[in-house]
Design goal:
Layout (H helix, E strand, L loop, with lengths): L4 H13 L5 E10 L6 E10 L6 E6 L1 E2 L2 E2 L1 E8 L3 E8 L2 E7 L5 E4 L4 E2 L3 E6 L4 E6 L4 E6 L5 E6 L1 E2 L2 E2 L6 E5 L2 E6 L2 E5 L5 E7 L21 E6 L7 E6 L6 E5 L7 E4 L8 E10 L6 E2 L7 E7 L3 E6 L7 E6 L4 E6 L5 E4 L6 E8 L6 E5 L1
Parallel strand pairs: 4-9, 15-20
Antiparallel strand pairs: 1-2, 1-25, 2-3, 4-5, 6-7, 7-8, 8-9, 8-10, 11-12, 12-13, 13-14, 15-16, 17-18, 18-19, 19-20, 21-22, 22-23, 23-24, 26-27, 27-28, 28-31, 29-30, 29-32, 32-33
């Protein structure tokens, strides 16, 4: 049976939004340090599924068999899960095995820097926050070297960064530090306050937290584009280490989704990063013997669709997350297609069909 194009579009959208579409949020938690150090080994690696809310600790992070202190967790299509080890000489980029929590060094020591948050810039590199210089860093994703540093500012004045994290949320970059969320201009480092959390956490029962309750003190955030592009998950380091779901543009308090995701010791550095299967990665197109394709969004140019193992065949369809068809064109055996489209910020879907409804998702920042 051949499905009409409209029916196929909704079938494709259902496939994209199905819980079968893998999405894992990875997290790290280091032990609280002794002043002036905010953190010390060990660091735990854990994971959380925003569809089912299942979560588990993988293991203690080790490099060359030694427990380390780390922060600045990020996930990139090229390297997988990465982070930044903290040492006396600064910070250096590491790659983490998500099955064992074993780390390997990827970059050199960045002298004098203490990376406390990081994310993929949806290109080739990482954006990171440095609490020692109160700056936004751009770090080369392939080798962990420093590309640029821009001072963070708020209301025209230098901003003093204590902790926090950043990510691409609903097409824009944000920083969430403790009780506040800021919109971030990545070119200038300028921050704009958009939200202040005032609702205290009434579920904490450890130590003095029953008598002295606080709002969630956020140390790490992670986008959830396959659940809802307008929400994100955040980890709270005050007392118990709870996970919260926040709305990106709505100034409403977070909703606790997991109580004490990693018990065992008081937290120091904490961070989160989202792994999304299919986001700017190769996905089969066509039948079992077809090649695969990769999708890139290029600012001021549009969409680039590139065949990796052969020519592109079938009809290329672009949908938004409401299931609306935005573009349709037959590939006719081209090795790559450049499509000039004026798309608003958000999450979109590309597929070849109707015989091969296997989607690739891409974000327009």
């Amino acid at each position: 049976m051949t499905l009409p194009m409209r029916s196929w579009c909704f079938l494709l959208l259902a496939l994209v939004l199905s819980p079968a579409s893998a999405q894992t949020i990875w997290g790290t938690k280091a032990r609280a340090g002794q002043p002036p150090d905010l953190s010390q080994p060990p660091t735990l690696l854990f994971h959380y599924d925003p569809w089912t809310e299942a979560h588990a600790i993988v293991d203690t992070v080790r490099l060359n068999g030694i427990e380390i202190d780390m922060d600045g967790l990020a996930y990139t299509p090229a390297q997988g899960l990465v982070g930044f080890e903290h040492g006396t000489g600064g910070s250096r980029m590491i790659v983490l095995d998500t099955g064992t929590a074993v780390a390997q060094p990827l970059g050199p020591w960045l002298a004098g820097l203490e990376v406390c948050g990081a994310c993929w810039d949806h290109g080739n590199d990482l954006l990171a926050l440095d609490r020692n210089t109160d700056a936004l860093l751009r770090i080369r994703g392939s080798d962990g070297t420093l590309m640029s540093s821009v001072p963070l500012t708020l209301n025209g004045a230098p901003f003093s960064l204590t902790s926090g994290d950043l990510d691409l949320l609903a097409g824009q970059f944000y920083i969430h530090e403790y009780y506040k969320r800021y919109l971030l201009d990545t070119a200038s480092g300028m921050m704009t306050t958009v939200f202040l959390e005032t609702q205290v956490d009434t579920t904490d029962v450890l130590g003095n937290c029953q008598s002295n309750q606080y709002p969630p003190g956020i140390g790490g955030i992670a986008a959830t584009p396959l659940v809802d592009i307008h929400t994100y998950i955040a980890v709270d380091g005050n007392c118990e280490d709870d996970l919260y779901r926040y709305e990106v543009v709505s100034p409403v308090s977070g909703v606790e989704v997991v109580n004490d995701v990693s018990p065992g010791f008081n937290s120091g550095n904490m961070d989160l990063a989202t792994e999304v299967a299919g986001l700017s990665t190769a996905i089969p197109s066509g039948g079992p013997h077809r090649g695969s394709f990769r999708v890139y969004w290029i600012e001021d140019a549009g969409l680039l669709v590139e065949g990796l193992e052969g020519p592109l065949e079938g009809e290329l369809v672009i949908l938004d997350m409401e299931g609306r068809q935005l573009y349709r064109k037959r590939a006719n055996g081209a090795s790559r297609m450049t499509i000039a489209l004026g798309l608003r910020a958000g999450l979109y879907v590309v597929a070849f069909g109707p015989s091969a409804p296997q989607p690739v998702r891409f974000v327009v920042p």
